[in-house]
Please model this.
Amino acid sequence: MNASSTAASRRHADQPTVLAYEGVRKLFGDFVALQGVDLQVHKGEVVCLIGPSGSGKSTLLRCTNALETLDGGRILVDGQALPANETEVRQVRRRMGMVFQSFELFPHKNALDNVAMGPVTVLGMPEAEARQKAMALLDKVGLAAKAQNFPANLSGGQQQRVAIARALAMNPEVMLFDEPTSALDPETVGEVLSVMQRLAQEGMTMVVVTHEMGFARRVADWVVVFEAGAIIEQGPPAQIFDNPKTERTRDFLGHLGWNG
Amino acid sequence: MNLDWSVVWTHRQALTHGALLTIGLTVLTMLLAVPGGIVLAMMRLSHQPLLSRASLAFVEFFRNLPLVLVIYWVFYVLPMTTDVQLSPMSTAIVALVLNVSAYNAETFRAGINSIRKGQLEAALAMGMSRHQAMAKVVIPQAARRVLPVLASTWVSLFKDTSLVSVIAVADLAYSAMQVRAQTFRVLEMLTAMAVMYWLMGYPQAKLVDWIHRKYGVKE
Model:
């Protein structure tokens, strides 16, 4: 059930390791959110983290860009351990784009400025250039026409697509998605997933926490099943969804009504 | 009853000066108490326990004392315990700024805390420093939420400046009382004073209502 037995079917196994989690532990008071997680993410891979709520998937994602600190183990980004020092953490963060469940667009800026803000503030890009880049990214997510809209005047799906454009504006090596469609109306879920799928096809390395099993089945190269702060199974989607190796994976998918 | 309203016109100059001083006191107090409140709020939200507790102590001290007592204390007790003797005008400003800074500190703190944590995280996740995230993302949003509250504080302050008349600062209240004492025209002068405060206060209150509508939280 671990990497060695399934390496043959891991399409990107020969690619460099972008993220390596080694014995990652995280506590919230007495609650053990992560109890020694080992996982590797290769370049160009789409890794979907699935599992019941509270099983540690989002926590692992938030540890990846140091929004949470670790209580044990370590995370290597391109072979380098996540630094402790604030300035160095910022260097790592700008190489990762993050998309949040609740979008977190900046309500006092229009869509264009939301996207242009990172390059201007963090990379010191001239404003005209950043706006041009932002416009191209909004076009890419199909929202060039909404560039002047403020977040309050965009639907949930549109806001999340702007948020994806905002993360892409930093030219990240890895994109982290924290339940990007969980707060959306069902009719707008599709537009966000299709943007993500296109991104995957372009070769973006992505770690996606999701409850969208159809998306994981279709797009993921590697699926990781969490329960109670630990990985209970990982493998290619065909294994996880069609032929799970553990009873608990079967139970979890069964509860979701997944039947292959 | 024998009323003589001409007394108001006769003393128009003193009353006008008083009204201007009242406005000036309000403006000057706010100009000092806004930065004061920001500094106190930043201290309160800092991770340094010493700064945070000092700010908390300041705020709770001045928020829970009657303003008139602070005015008396600065004017009478301060010179007894130290060598500092402030003029009535300086006393008035010090007392008002201490009081209003404490209120503003709570306003700014609440404004900053009202911005969802996810907003700060989204800014940090892009690689912004904490300082940039506050300046570009949190504070601009907090300012809009705080503005209506500041405007309300302004209107209260405008009326509360009348308390400085107890140490003979010649604001509108003091000037009107002086005329009353000289002429014994109690009803006329107190009415004139009420009308003047109201005429100046009402447009401000309406302006506050407008600010509430324009900048109130909509999300």
